[in-house]
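Session log. Operator J.P. requested a structure for one protein chain; no other inputs attached. Running the standard single-chain path with token output.
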Amino acid sequence: MQNRFYHAFDTETYGAERKSDYRSPFQIDRDRIIHAHAFRKLQSKTQVFLSGEYDFYRTRLTHSMEVAQIGRSICHYLQSRGGLLKDDFFIDGELVEAVCLAHDLGHPPFGHSGERTLQELMIKWGGFEGNAQTLRLLTGTIYQNETSVRGMQPTRALLDGVLKYKKLFREFPKKPQNHFLYDAQAAERTFVLGKAKIPAALHAGEKLNAFKSVECQIMDWADDAAYSLNDIVDGVKAGFLNHEKIETWAAGEAIDAQQQQLLDVLFDAIRSDRLESVFAQKIGGFITACRLRERDNFMAAKTNRYRFELLVAPEAEREAKFFKKMANDIIFESPQLQQIEHKARRVLFDLWNSTWSNYVEKGPRVINILPARVGKLIDAEPTTAGKARQICDYLAGLTDGMIVHTYRRLFDPEFGSIRDLS
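Structure written below.
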């Protein structure tokens, strides 16, 4: 049965027309992401704790899989409620799954610490943003070999689904720290919007960044649901969160009645060693907190993806916000996580400076320290900004293990025997 929710506008592909086969366009999107090298790399990229340091905690890969499961479940739940959706008119779960699996592809090693450091390094050259980097991968760099670099020809609906932010770097009055697209991605934004002119009112403040397709809204809430709860679970397992630390933190907060109830449930779950099962039930509650309603905007006539929007019950949003703040204040601001921040800055700055001096500064190259393919991409760029972007692409694409290995090979005198050259 054909799904009337989507039309040719939604399935049109960016860059080149794809060959069709037995799969739907959105199944092809999902399959290409799953089988991409960039997706496999997520298994060795930090979510909260440094990849490999705690082997049974979440990585970017397992987080993305959990977000995809929650996203698909939201689609199924919304359809089961009937109303605006029908058996032949529904939000495609495989499209949402693809969006969720792709949403962290562009995030660099060392998690948010790495993202902040690359943004500092790239601020003169158009900035670095994890979501913008995901878009860059999908449209231009996800497939690479010694002779070519290209994107995966994603559908418009997939690209729009990962576009959490639509405002360009240059469109901010001051250089932004996050939540932007690269200026060079204006063409991708134009494609996503079907060349529709963005109303002037949307350019004010963060309004354009808040303008999202319904699939992007589902991914965004699924992401919030996953990490607001799962960061707490992993934090308790790692010893960053315990009854005493949480009580000390709560004493400095203006805790209301709802938040006190959340704390009571959390304390009981920790004492009874049932935290994982209790929080798994909370994820179910976050799924059933979703509703759908119609909306009117400049894209609603073009696609149902903008004719409908996701609503989340306020109490669920408040709960997610509460646990995110707890995790940030106790875990992310802890000395252990701040040490990772320090490590990220040291490693990324040193690798950047060495690469810059060998591949960008004028004069003959001192030494080739990058893979030949990457060196050729840098050399082919006619501008300094372009060369900086290629260096950034390389560093952002490394896993936690790869970047530490590379750093040690370059700077550790005790490391670098013939056995270490792989």
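Operator note: Residues 337-420 form one domain.
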